[in-house]
Design brief:
The protein is α+β, with helices and mostly antiparallel strands. The protein contains 13 helices and 19 strands. The protein binds one RNA strand through helix 3 and helix 4.
Length: 424
RNA sequence: GGAGAAAUGGCAGAGUGGUCGAAUGCACUAGUCUUGAAAACUAGCGUCCGUUCACGCGGACCGGGGGUUCGAAUCCCUCUUUCUCCGCCA
């Protein structure tokens, strides 16, 4: 959620930046500013009325103490009038404030100046290309869903029986590979200074709102209606919410958290070849990294997070590239996002395996995550997060890229975790 | 699931209708003292909104919401959470 004052002071800048998203928000922003002026006028009126009531009430107390009942009753009558005014103004405010809030919530984050304009993923900028030729496999190469069946490590049909489509069952070495990857990713994050968190997998409305899943993406989360909980679509939600309504000390920066959780996503309306196998599932495991930092440091931090994720892909010996998302592909809450894609020679296409974003104050404003700066002013912090990494698609990439005639080779860095060097 | 008790500032903990944004202690910050530190002493020390160049001023907030009253931390209703006991249970 954007801050009204920021909008007010940077109206032209904001409107221009929105254009890279293909968004013309002039009308909405104008309306927001207008409503905020109304809000302030009403607030002042309310405060002044309240001040009068307060001083009159004190007067009444004094007069009673002095036994001047008649005078006191006169003031009481005036207070009754003031209360009518107060009630009317209050009602107006009670209508205006949520309306203003709702309107403000329709505005996405302001894209960073480096975000290229564009409408679709074809307009994304290749920030870092793969450094050599893309790998090729011979004609016998198989996509991961075939390999999974061949080695009996992932059973998609069994998942359909137990739950439904998009809930694969990992078996034997498939399950072990997954567990190894989780440990590998968590240890790498720990070594990079991230504190490990095991959060709840269900969150309440306030938490889902704070990180921006509500109201924008309500349909994408599984909703436990009886208790009004949501199954988390990413660890970002519970982990970042640790700091909801918290004023941290500047000396605590940077706050670095990591966590592994299953992630649940409805992913409605997705069918066809591109969502086969592990390409898109309703439940997958992910290790997330989250940072809460000083506003001046957030872009520097974003680069270190990019480096961290890149390091993981290198250790897993996967061909990757890094994209800078264009305005049209940029998430609602993000100011700048880098996507990581791994090339699958078997599917002959790039698969998104990670996304790392700087939200600047968009999330912290919603969740009131602040710190005291050197002037003892309370200021919003910046939040960032990234997948490091998402399991399902990494498993797919590993199977496809490391397949050989006599089995799947496990990358060296992962072998201490899997305790085997081949799936055959 | 049943019965009872409670919720006040970073923490502990007073306050039961007006002078209470709230005593006191601890913690924290600054200063005095000291070669330095500790101790002692002095002062400061919540969040949000509005207004102001600023000092400041006005308003809201004592778990959330609503009510009674001229006036509510204090009385009433309701919700939530926590604790104790009983039951059930991984």
């Amino acid at each position: 959620m954007l801050q009204v004052n920021f909008l007010k002071n940077n109206k032209e800048l904001v409107l221009n930046r929105f254009k890279v998203r293909g968004l013309d928000a002039a009308e909405t922003v104008g309306k927001v500013l207008e409503m905020d002026d109304q809000r302030k006028a009403l607030q002042s009126k309310l405060d002044n009325t309240q001040a009068e009531i307060n001083s009159a009430s004190k007067e009444v107390g004094k007069l009673f103490a002095q036994g001047k009942q008649e005078e006191a009753n006169g003031i009481k009558a005036r207070v009754a009038e003031l209360k009518e005014t107060q009630k009317a103004v209050n009602n107006e405010l009670a209508e205006l404030k949520p309306a203003l809030q709702d309107l403000l919530l329709t505005l996405p984050n302001v894209p960073h100046e480096s975000v290229p304009p564009g409408n679709t993923d074809e307009d994304n900028e290749v920030f870092k290309a793969w450094h050599t030729d893309l790998p090729t496999l011979d004609d016998s190469a198989q996509p991961h869903w075939e390999l999974a069946k061949k080695y009996d490590i992932i059973d998609f049909e069994l998942g359909v029986k137990i739950t439904g489509a998009g809930f694969p069952v990992f078996k034997g070495k498939g399950a072990q590979l997954k567990r190894a990857l989780i440990n590998f990713f968590l240890n790498e994050a720990r070594d990079a200074g991230y504190q490990e968190i095991m959060p709840p997998l269900l969150v309440n409305e306030a938490s889902a709102f704070a990180t921006g899943q509500l109201p924008d993406k309500e349909g994408q989360m599984y909703h436990v209606t009886a208790q009004n909980f949501f199954l988390i679509p990413t660890a970002e939600v519970p982990v970042t919410n640790i700091y909801r309504d918290v004023i941290v000390k500047e000396a605590d920066f940077p706050i670095k958290l990591t966590g592994h959780t299953p992630c649940f996503r409805v992913e409605a309306g997705s069918y066809g070849a591109h969502v086969r196998g592990l390409n898109r599932v309703h439940q997958f495991d992910k290790v997330e990294i989250v940072q809460i930092v000083h506003p001046e440091k957030s872009y520097e931090t974003l680069q270190t997070m990019v480096k961290h994720i890149e390091g993981l892909l290198i250790k897993l010996e996967l061909p990757y590239r890094i994209l800078r998302l264009c305005g049209g592909d940029l998430g609602f809450t993000s100011a700048l996002t880098f996507d990581f894609e791994v090339y699958s020679a078997a599917q002959k296409r790039w698969l998104e395996v990670s996304s790392v974003s700087n939200f600047e104050t968009f999330q912290s404003n919603r969740m009131k995550l602040r710190f005291k700066n050197e002037n003892k002013k309370t200021v919003l912090a910046h939040t960032l997060n990234g997948s490091a990494l998402a399991l399902a698609r990494i498993v797919a990439s590993l199977l496809e890229n490391h397949q050989t005639a006599d089995g799947i080779t496990i990358p060296k860095a992962l072998q201490p975790y899997t305790m085997f060097d081949k799936i055959s």
